[in-house]
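hey can u check if this looks right to u? its 280 residues, i copy pasted from the old doc so theres a chance i mangled smth
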Amino acid sequence: MQNLLRFFYVYRAFFLFILLETYCLYHIVTNKSYHRSTFLNKTQVWSSGIYTFFDDMSQYLNLSNENKNLVEENAILRKHLEAFLSVDVLPLGLVTDSLLQNKFEVIPAKVINNPVNLIDNYFTINKGSIDGVKPMMGVITNKGLIGVVKDVSDHFCLAMSLMNTQLEVSAKLKRQNQFGYIRWNGDKINKTQLWNMSNHLEVKKGDTVTSTASSPIFPENTMIGIVEDVVSVKGKAYYDINVILSNDIQQIHYVYLIENKFKKEQKLLEQKHFNDQSTD
C-alpha cells in the first residue's frame, strides 16, 4: 500500500496534467459545436477500426462455418444457372429474380460489430455513404431479412436489428397470404413476434413468414422465419404468434444492403393519394 501511495506521489504532476487535459477537452467538446463534431467523427472512426480488427480475428477462427455457408449459397446459384441453360423459356423464378435485380440496388458488405444483449440492438457494417449506402436501406443475407439501415457515416453504417423493439417490418403468412407485421418483444434471441393476425385464421406451427409487396424496403417474399407456436388468448381478437428467425442473428457476418430504386416514386404516389382523400 505504501509503495502504491509513493508511486502516485512521485508522479503527482503527471496525473494532475492528465486530469487538467481531460477537463479542458471535455469543455471544448461540449461547448464548441465544431470541435464536438470533429471529436465524435474521430471516435467513430477509432471504434469502427477496433471493431474491424476483432471481427477479422473472429472471422479467421470461424472460416469453416463461413466456407460452409458459401458452398450452400453457390449450390443454390448453380441450380438457377442449370435451370437457365437447360430450357428455351426462362423459368418464372428467374424472371422474378431478374425483375428484382432491376428494381433493387445491391451492395455486398460485412458485419463488424453485432451486440445482441440489449432491448434495442444495432449492428455495424463496413460500408458507408462513399459506397452508396443510405438510411432506410434493407439488410438481408442469403437466408433472409435481418434489419434496416438507421445511420450512415463515410465508411460505415449502423443498422437496426430484428432484435430491436423499435423496428416493425410488414410481414405475411405466406400460405394464407394474410398480412400483419413483426416486432420483437425484447425476450428471446432469434425469436420474434408476428402481430395483427386474426384468430379466425388457420395458423399452424411451421408456417412460413415473409415480407410483403407493400414494403418499400424489401423484395416481396423475402424470408423472415417460421411459426414456432400459436396461442389463442381468450378475449383477444388476434393470435399471439412466436416466429423463429431464418437467420441466427448472433452469427451474421456477410450481408447484402438493398435499396428499392423506385421507393421514392412509390411513396410520393401513395402520399398524393392520401392527400387527395384528405381533401375530399
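Helices lie at 2-10, 12-31, 33-61, 63-86, 92-103, 263-279.
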